[in-house]
């Protein structure tokens, strides 16, 4: 995966919650300011989306300036280097064996039959 795409996906995941909270705050403010169904039309919705775009753009500029001030250069540094060892191999083999078993045998049915056969 290209590093630029990975960084973009990381930021998207990290700040999607901020975006949804900002959108929810704007919708709540619109609902509190409108009476009944007034202010619920497409025209108001378009205005809200436009303002949300402007607010997120300004917030993104502030975040970018803060990241640059802290020395961010587009790379995420890990504390230790990842290596694929024996523990990771055992973990991979264990899950693979479970998925193969689930594919060939109906384990929920077998467990259900065993439990209903044991209990009255």
Main attributes?
120 residues, mainly alpha, 4 helices, 75% helix
> Main beta sheet, described?
none
| Gyration radius over CA | 26 Å
Low-confidence stretches: none
Overall spatial form: flat
In percent, how helical is the residue content?
A: over 70%
Number of strand elements: 0
Mean pLDDT comes to 82
Strand content: under 5%
Overview of the molecule:
By secondary structure, the chain is mostly helical. The chain folds into two domains: 67 residues, no CATH class; 33 residues. It is 75% helix and 0% strand. The model has no long low-confidence stretch (mean pLDDT 82).
Which SSEs are present, and which pair or pack?
Layout: H1 3-33, H2 42-69, H3 86-104, H4 107-118
Task: Briefly summarize what is shown.
The protein has 120 residues and is mainly α. Helix content is 75%, strand content 0%. It has helices at 3-33, 42-69, 86-104, 107-118.
């Amino acid at each position: 995966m290209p590093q630029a795409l990975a960084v973009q996906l990381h930021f998207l995941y990290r700040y999607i919650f901020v975006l949804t909270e900002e959108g929810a705050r704007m919708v709540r403010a619109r609902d509190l300011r409108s009476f009944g169904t007034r202010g619920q039309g497409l025209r108001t919705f378009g205005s809200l989306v436009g303002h949300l775009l402007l607010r997120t753009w300004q917030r993104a500029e502030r975040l970018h300036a803060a990241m640059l001030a802290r020395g961010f250069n587009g790379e995420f540094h890990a504390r230790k280097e990842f290596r694929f060892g024996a523990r990771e191999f055992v973990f991979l083999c264990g899950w693979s064996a479970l998925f193969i078993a689930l594919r060939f045998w109906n384990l929920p049915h077998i467990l259900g039959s065993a439990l209903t056969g044991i209990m009255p």
